[in-house]
Specification:
The protein has about 260 residues and is mostly helical. The chain is about 60% helix and about 0% strand. It has 14 helices and no strands. Helix 8 packs across helix 13. It is globular and about 60 Å long. Residues about 175-185, about 225-230 and about 260-265 have low confidence and may be disordered.
Length: about 260
């Protein structure tokens, strides 16, 4: 953990601190936190098509009184909260949730942060979070369940890492020993894998297959990361991952001179 880039350590510390505060405050204060900063898709739809949200709400007869209270609470004044497609990524649903996200963020965000540099990396994380919110919104336009978690951002950095970490001489590539790869800065600046070549790279396609299978299972089966009445927003994961793959080249700083030839066996 002491070799992690400072930006990764600070983000992990911030996520843990926010979760700690969420655990310490009263339930009422925590709900207020969700209302202000979690992403609620139906609130955006209600702003321009309130009848659609009302019709979807009325179509669910069970627990009508409880749902009415939740709808009133999360719809608030009916105006969209434009900051929430970003701020939802700082909230989590418990220590297991934030712990898993921080673990994967540290593992895959570190090589991306070293390659991009801090300003580009922070902007990339923000874009991944917003892309996740957009993907979730397009599939849950009338949903009033708040969305929280950094999983879309984590998925974005995972996808960005796929573009270069499996290249020869890169952190997970061939030709260099593990100790060398971990300490040589040029390992993070190997040429990126073109999108058209990803499907021909065995390591990359294995990782992609595992990732999409895991997210399918998240959506199809109950998981420990979701509590009673809660679901995993796997569509947001897909949105973050796709933007990580497709937008990588817009954030990747040009530095062809730092790439090194293959080491001799």
């Amino acid at each position: 953990m002491f070799n992690l880039p400072p930006v990764i350590l600070w983000i992990v510390a911030l996520l843990v601190a926010i979760e700690g505060i969420s655990q310490l405050v009263t339930p009422e204060a925590y709900l207020d936190l969700l209302q202000r900063f979690a992403f609620v898709p139906g609130r955006f739809t209600f702003a321009f098509d309130p009848a659609r949200v009302t019709a979807a709400f009325n179509a669910i007869p069970e627990d009508a009184e409880l749902q009415a209270q939740a709808a009133h609470f999360f719809l608030g004044d009916g105006k969209p909260q434009w900051w929430t497609p970003l701020t939802y990524a700082f909230l989590h649903g418990g220590w297991l949730h934030v712990g898993m996200n921080c673990l994967w963020f540290a593992a895959f965000g570190s090589p991306v942060a070293r390659r991009f540099g801090t300003p580009r990396f922070l902007l990339f994380c923000a874009v991944s979070a917003v892309a996740g919110a957009v993907a979730h919104y397009l599939t849950h336009m009338t949903d009033l369940q708040p969305v929280a978690g950094a999983s879309a951002t984590v998925s974005g950095v995972m996808a960005a890492a796929v573009r270069f970490v499996f290249q020869p001489g890169a952190p997970l590539g061939e030709s260099l020993g593990f100790a060398e790869r971990a300490h040589e800065e040029h390992a993070y600046r190997q040429p990126a894998l073109p999108l058209r070549d990803i499907l021909s790279n065995r390591s990359a396609i294995s990782f992609l297959s595992f990732w999409f299978l895991a997210n399918f299972l998240f959506g199809a089966l109950p998981t420990p990361l979701a509590g009673a009445g809660e679901t995993v927003a796997w569509e947001a994961h897909i949105g973050g991952f796709l933007i990580g793959l497709l937008a990588f080249r817009w954030f990747d700083p040009p530095a062809p001179s730092l790439a090194v030839p293959l080491a001799k066996q």
